[in-house]
Amino acid sequence: MCNRYNTPTETEIERHFRIGRQSPNRWWTDERIDIFPRAQGPFIRRTHDDPGYSREPVVGQWGLIPWFATERALKYSTNNARSEELESKASYKTPWARGQRCIIPAWTFDEPNWESGKNVWWRFARKDGEPWALAGLWNRWKDPGSGEIVESYTMLTINADAHPLMSRMHKPDPKLPSGKQDKRSVIPIEMEDIDQWLAGTQKEASELLRLAPVSVFDAAPV
Predict the structure, then answer these.
(1) What's the total number of domains in the chain?
(2) Residue 199: its pLDDT value, please?
(3) Can you give the pLDDT at residue 22?
(4) Into which family does the record put it (predicted)?
């Protein structure tokens, strides 16, 4: 799972993902900053109120707030969602069924490596120098007390036990064999597949839930 990533600036997101400026007011920041769970971060989704198709940038909490939550501060983590559980997990099955898919822009993301016996953080960038477009789900939640509308999102992950690079991340469980560790990886969406992810059918979106080849990564200890 991922618990830290670095986001592009507002201008970089608008240019790279071809999003027109929605208003004269700044919606994000002119700095690249690290995002941690429950912090505010940017994501891109199919425009919520457009009967056709367009993309809109949104800022929300990294940690999806499900429709049934009674308060914003959850007692469990929702910043990562296992893609294998999207149809069954209570927190994610409604956004998945409604097609509430999003792209999370990231210059880099960090993962822990325990091969030395202690935690060594590794940083993952794209080898082509472009930002990542990571698969996510979003939700819009209404605070039952104040009536405030809160945007939030989660980052999808997939089993990486067989991946030559991502299987090396995270602390191994000595009780489990190497092929049954359930090591996790984020799910990058390539630029040519973004429309399919945001606006395709559930079947079409499911086809993109896959590991990225090792050749895409530029990874090294921090």
Answers:
(1) 1
(2) 97
(3) 54
(4) Belongs to the SOS response-associated peptidase family.
**Token pair for 177:** 């064999």
Tell me which residue of 189, 184, 145 sits closest to 45, measured CA to CA. 189
Q: pTM for the complete prediction? A: 0.95
Closest C-alpha to 43, from 154, 148, 177 = 154
- Domain with 50 in it: 5-221
Residue 135 identity (one-letter amino acid)? A
Give CA–CA dist 29/42, Å, rounded.
Answer: 10
Residue 91: count other Cβ atoms within 10 Å of its Cβ: 21
Backbone angles phi, psi at 167, to 5 degrees: -70, -15
**Per-residue model confidence (pLDDT) at position 1:** 78
Structure tokens at 162: 């067989």
Residues (pLDDT < 50) of the chain are none
Alpha-carbon distance values, 185 to 30, 80, 88, 140, 148 (Å): 28, 10, 20, 25, 33
Helix and strand counts by DSSP (H, E) for the chain: 4, 12
AA identity, residue 6: N
How many residues does the structure list for the chain? 222
**Identity of the residue numbered 209:** L
CATH number at residue 93: 3.90.1680.10
Per the rule left: phi > 0, alpha: psi between -120 and 50, beta: everything else, 15 is alpha
